[in-house]
Amino acid sequence: MRWSGVFHRFYEELSTQRPPDILLVHAGGNNLGLMSDQELALDIKRDILQLHQHFPSMTIAYSCINERKVWRNGPPGKINRDRKTVNTLVRNAVGNFGGVVIEHPLLRFFNNSLFLPDGVHFTEEGNRIFLSNIQAALKKILQ
């Protein structure tokens, strides 16, 4: 899913229920290379800040865009730099209102055991690491 669809989907789901206590967002990677890193970061920051203003009691957790072996929309070096820029700018914005940032430092592009042959999706081990990071953050939020 691309970033523009994330909050549209959230508000669709919200129409039938109350807002969640915690909203975990892991999106934006599919936009890299299709728009500038600055534009993507500004879009994400704007939308997350708007959500925080509309639902101040909801904890927003931003799961950083992780490394991949393959990026579909540009040269890997440039896309990885853009990924780091987006993560830094969004990390700062989320931190300003007390949101949570989930990092994925062990998901490294050069580790063949973490990615399926397509270079994007995780193997069982990669998925375990990814979900463990999210689980740890959720446990911390709930304490």
TrEMBL record:
Q: Which residues form a coiled coil?
A: none
SGNH hydrolase-type esterase domain location? 11-129
Q: Which Pfam families match?
A: Lipase_GDSL_2 (PF13472)
Recorded catalytic reaction(s): these are: 1-O-hexadecyl-2-acetyl-sn-glycero-3-phosphate + H2O = 1-O-hexadecyl-sn-glycero-3-phosphate + acetate + H(+); a 1-O-alkyl-2-acetyl-sn-glycero-3-phosphocholine + H2O = a 1-O-alkyl-sn-glycero-3-phosphocholine + acetate + H(+); 1-O-hexadecyl-2-acetyl-sn-glycero-3-phosphocholine + H2O = 1-O-hexadecyl-sn-glycero-3-phosphocholine + acetate + H(+)
> Where on the tree of life does the source sit, at the highest rank?
Eukaryota
Instruction: Give the InterPro entries listed for this entry.
Output: SGNH_hydro (IPR013830), SGNH_hydro_sf (IPR036514)
Gene3D superfamilies found in the cross-reference section: SGNH hydrolase
What does the record give as EC number? 3.1.1.47
- Class of this enzyme: hydrolase
Q: What is this protein called?
A: 1-alkyl-2-acetylglycerophosphocholine esterase
Organism name:
Lates japonicus (Japanese lates)
